[in-house]
Amino acid sequence: MSESTELSPGSNITTITVQANGPLEIQGEIVVCGADGKTIREGKRMYLCRCGHSANKPFCDGTHNKLGFADDGLGVKKDDA
Ligand code: FES
Questions:
Q1: Three-state SS string across the chain, please?
Q2: What are phi and psi of 46, to 5 degrees?
Q3: Are 62 and 47 in contact (CB under 8 A)?
Q4: For ligand 1, is residue 46 a contact (CB within 6 Å)?
Q5: Cα separation of 14 and 32, whole Å?
Q6: What are the pLDDT digits (tens) for 13-61?
Q7: Are 32 and 24 in contact (CB under 8 A)?
Q8: What pLDDT does residue 2 have?
Q9: How far does residue 26's CA lie from ligand 1's centre (Å)?
Q10: How much is the pLDDT for 12?
Q11: 19, 54, 57, best to mutate for ligand 1 pocket (most atoms within 8 Å of CB)
């Protein structure tokens, strides 16, 4: 799979997109379970906090905007690791 992947309509691949200065956007058939293994939420699109400051973890509640969370969302490049 290439680094930039276009999904065809109806694809059953679940994708996680790191948003610039924001959460992880997950699209696909999603079930989020808690530490006890019980389902917290099911859906086809969710946003998970990666700034660490959401009051509704593991989901994003928009707090990253108020705090000015900054990350380009491009990940660590091999040359940087
Ligand atoms: S990424 Fe949105 S509240 Fe943390």
A1: CCCCCCCCCCCCCCEEEECCCCCEEEEEEEEEECCCCCEEEEEEEEEECCCCCCCCCCECCCHHHHHCCCCCCCCCCCCCC
A2: -145, 160
A3: no
A4: no
A5: 13
A6: 999 999 999 999 999 999 999 999 999 999 999 999 999 999 999 999 9
A7: no
A8: 44
A9: 14
A10: 79
A11: 54
Cis? peptide before 9, omega within 30° of 0:
no
Q: Which two tokens stand for residue 37?
A: 């293994």
Q: Which two tokens stand for residue 81?
A: 């690791």
- Token code pair at residue 26: 């997950």
Nearest to 53 by CA among 35, 68, 36, 75: 68
1: tokens are 């799979």
